Amino acid sequence: MSALAVAVLLGATLAAGISLVVSASPRWGAPSLVRRIAPHVRDLADPLGLTPLARLGDLDVRRLLRAAQLRVARAMGGSVSVARRLRRADRPVDVVGFRARQLVWTVSGAAIGGVLAVALALAGAASSATALLPAVGGVAGIVSADALLTRAANARVARMAEELPHVLEFLALCLAAGEGLRDTVRRVSDAAGGDLTDELRRVSLAVSTGSGLAEALSASAARLDLPAWSRAVDHLVAAIERGAPLAAVLQTQAEDARETARRRLLESAGRKEILMLVPLVFLILPLSVLFAVYPGVLMLRLGVG
Question: Which SS3 state, helix, strand or coil, does residue 57 take?
Fold first, then answer.
């Protein structure tokens, strides 16, 4: 096992050295002539600057990486849940990019596990379970990437749920002051700060570039998938179509969102109260019993009294 670990370490060092030498070589490191002149002669039919000669003579690294990402996403399965969490977390990558990042985490975890296995073998503390460290590291990388995405999505949704009552009340106040809905959305997105106001800023930008206000709000509700925001947007779009007073609709939705936040806070307090019993039952109560009983037991053993 020690000889195998030494062989793996020497082989990895040799591969890293050869890679550095090849990457520093002028023939491999410098771009080809076709690659250098392609940006100056490309047209609309070839927006990436890759002529047929360039495709044959010089491989496009971005194209190869994209193809590898597609293969990885197809092998690991493109998930609707991943796309939903990416939208809720406001990540700039798509499902394919996340799968590629997950693959990087997997390879990194397997590499760390391999390094630990080699270190244990060199130290003479290797066992039969040491060979499983690379596999365990790879699985840990997959799970960690997915767990971090879920945590980021849940945290952003929780922040937006806290901001929702204040944002709706601010919108209702501006509408009651006589401003139009588009100006109200623009004012709130510029004046306030937060995740939900960033989403309103996107809505304002979409409206400024030609989209309808109802369409932009509906797209925002579908992108966030926040139930309270979706209900507020549905009522707001219905009020726009039917000509109902928008300020009263937003004020009602703000009260509903505040009531939902209050109910969520009470539920969280109930769960935290149960969790607070864990140290009380398993730590404080046994110590109290120990302090009360141990002196009497000690006196009985010593035969005192």
Answer: helix
pLDDT at 49 over 50: no
CA 45 to each of CA 52, 80, 195, 196: distance values in angstroms, whole numbers, following the listed order = 11, 34, 40, 40
Residue that is written with structure tokens 């109910």 in the block: 263
Whole-angstrom distance, CA of residue 91 vs CA of residue 17: 36
Q: What was the pLDDT predicted at 57?
A: 41
| Contacts with 279 (C-beta within 8 Å, 6 or more apart), sequence order | none
Both tokens assigned to 154: 């849940």
pLDDT digits (tens, 9 = 90+) for 75-106: 555 577 888 888 888 888 888 888 888 888 98
Interatomic CA distance for residues 63 and 168, integer angstroms: 45
pTM of the model: 0.65
Tally of residues, the chain: 305
DSSP string, 161-226: HHHHHHHHHHHHHHHHTT--HHHHHHHHHHH--SHHHHHHHHHHHHHHTT--HHHHHHHHHHHH--
Please name the helix (run of DSSP H) or strand (run of DSSP E) that holds residue 261, with its range, or none: helix 246-279
- State the average pLDDT over residues 241-245: 79
Q: Does domain 164-261 have CATH number 1.20.81?
A: yes
Which residues have a Cβ under 8 Å from the Cβ of 101 and sit 6 or more positions away? 93, 145
**CATH 1.20.81 segments of the chain:** 164-261
Name the nearest CA neighbour of 199 among 248, 245, 233, 152: 233
